[in-house]
């Protein structure tokens, strides 16, 4: 008799993985969660809103996973997966409610899969949302053993009249950049082409460890600011860097004028550039030390920066808005 296990799928290991995952997921449960993991679907009760709009986003970790495989470390990439999703929906003023994950692999190893979910749970806790379900797919012959793919899906909520969509942005508004935690989760195909020895020393650490620094989650910081100030537009600096992402907050034909000398560029970006990447391409690929951008009235900019720094983040006035649709102008 031929069994599923002989075909490469270990059901018992799957049961073990789910048991380990449940512990981490339960730590994220908020008041809206109505059932535990293990049902056919996750259930979440929407809190009281006057005119609620659900805001959704989905993303993955990309080839940063290759660094995790090579470093044999799996507990941080789950944070990246959550961050890439929740930071995106945050740009429209949405508070994340719940998160679902998808993990695919060639051969399931319960402990390793649980490490990934441990990171996802940590990310959800940082974002204030619940991990209410997901899928773990064992696909022998499709993925190499020891390699995983991770994707996530989140849903948030915002009052309809509080949606942030850039319609109130005007010339001379100030652009505030909030520091990133590092490279975040973009540009790793280029990085892996340039950096092949992950054990090389970089400022006293293995460079592979630097490259695995998780993406910063901005949710609690931004939601706090939204309660105090008028935020007109926001951009999560992901793939496409400054050039692609900052103009996404504009409803009209405006230019974001960015002063390159206004913020600190972390050493890891300077090192990548020293390996032969031109500066313009760096700003079109990486966050360069700025992971999230706000557009605000000029009279509020100093107070907003002060509040951000009270919450143990660094922020800078990185530029301003001008009329004329030229996208981004770096000076």
Automatic annotation (TrEMBL):
It is found in: Cytoplasm. Its EC number is 6.3.3.1. The keyword Ligase applies. It is an enzyme of class 6 (ligase). Residues 170-327 form the PurM-like C-terminal domain. This is Phosphoribosylformylglycinamidine cyclo-ligase. GO terms for molecular function: ATP binding; phosphoribosylamine-glycine ligase activity; phosphoribosylformylglycinamidine cyclo-ligase activity. GO terms for biological process: 'de novo' IMP biosynthetic process; adenine biosynthetic process. It comes from Clostridium colicanis DSM 13634. Keywords: ATP-binding, Cytoplasm, Ligase, Nucleotide-binding, Purine biosynthesis. SUPFAM superfamilies: PurM C-terminal domain-like, PurM N-terminal domain-like.
């Amino acid at each position: 008799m031929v069994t599923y296990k002989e075909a490469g799928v270990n059901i018992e290991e799957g049961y073990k993985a789910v048991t380990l995952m449940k512990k981490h997921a339960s730590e994220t449960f908020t008041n809206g969660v109505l059932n535990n993991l293990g049902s056919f679907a996750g259930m979440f009760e929407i809190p009281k809103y006057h005119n609620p709009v659900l805001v959704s986003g989905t993303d993955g970790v990309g080839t940063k996973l290759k660094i995790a495989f090579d470093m044999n470390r799996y507990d941080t990439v789950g944070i990246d997966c959550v961050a890439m999703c929740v930071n995106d929906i945050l740009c429209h003023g949405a508070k994340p409610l719940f998160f679902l994950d998808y993990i695919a692999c060639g051969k399931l190893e319960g402990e390793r899969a649980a490490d990934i979910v441990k990171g996802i749970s940590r990310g959800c806790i940082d974002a204030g949302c619940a991990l209410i379900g997901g899928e773990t797919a064992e696909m022998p012959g499709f993925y190499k053993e020891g390699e995983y793919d991770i994707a996530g899906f989140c849903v948030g909520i915002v009052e309809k009249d509080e949606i942030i969509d850039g319609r109130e942005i005007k010339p001379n508004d100030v652009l505030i950049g909030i520091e990133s935690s590092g490279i975040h989760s973009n540009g790793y195909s280029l990085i892996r082409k340039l950096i092949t020895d992950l054990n090389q020393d970089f400022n006293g650490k293995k460079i592979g460890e630097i490259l695995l620094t998780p993406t910063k989650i901005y949710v609690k910081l931004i939601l706090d600011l939204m309660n105090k100030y008028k935020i007109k537009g926001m951009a999560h600096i992901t793939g496409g860097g400054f050039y692609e992402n900052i103009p996404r907050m504009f409803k009209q034909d405006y230019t974001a004028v960015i002063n390159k000398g206004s913020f600190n560029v972390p050493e890891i970006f300077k090192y990548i550039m020293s390996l032969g990447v031109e500066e313009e391409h760096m700003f079109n690929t990486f966050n360069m030390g700025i992971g999230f951008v706000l557009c605000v009235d000029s009279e509020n900019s100093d107070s907003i920066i002060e509040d951000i720094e009270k919450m143990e983040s660094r922020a800078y006035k990185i530029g301003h808005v001008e009329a004329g649709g030229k996208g981004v102008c770096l000076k």
